Amino acid sequence: MTQCLFCRIIRKEIPGRIVHESDSVIAFEDINPQAPVHLLVVPKKHIDSLTNLSKADRELMGSLFLTINELAKASHLARDGFRTVINTGPGGGQTVYHLHVHLLGGRQMTWPPG
Ligand code: 5GP
Ligand code: ZN
After folding, report:
1. Is residue 35 within 8 Å of 106, Cβ to Cβ?
2. Are 67 and 28 in contact (CB under 8 A)?
3. Residue 100 falls in the annotated catalytic set
4. Looking at ligand 1, which atom is closest to the CA of residue 87?
5. pLDDT per residue as tens digits for the range 57-100
6. Residues near 46 by Cβ (< 8 Å), separated by ≥ 6?
7. Which ligand sits closest to the CA of 103?
8. 14-34, pLDDT tens digit by residue?
9. Which of 55, 87, 108, 111 could staple 92 via S-S, CB 3.0–4.6 A?
10. Closest ligand to 32 CA?
């Protein structure tokens, strides 16, 4: 059994504030939110990072981004805009090695990011 934190949330071994779940994708609130809305949109399949994506994941990634689209609308972020972020590897600031997309909104975002 993998000890991966997000796999454990997916298996409901540890609590997560889940806002969406399908066969292949789950979304839950970030424990340390950086914006009024801060969701993590996560493939249920364990993939370490974007670097480890394969062609077999093509349909899964389509489902993931369609879920982001739906969640952005459901969270009333689509009109004003929102930020999606994928941190990859140490240089990208990734801390949890299970691929996830941050969906952030509800405040004005700035650029460049930190
Ligand atoms: P990363 O730094 O890998 O891009 O993002 C990992 C995110 O996971 C961080 O924003 C962090 O706040 C969040 N996180 C870490 N531990 C937990 C947890 O136990 N539950 C939830 N919901 N989020 C977590
Ligand atoms: Zn995992």
Report:
1. yes
2. no
3. yes
4. 4
5. 999 999 999 999 999 999 999 999 999 999 999 999 999 999 99
6. 2, 4, 6, 7, 98
7. 1
8. 999 999 999 999 999 999 999
9. 87
10. 1
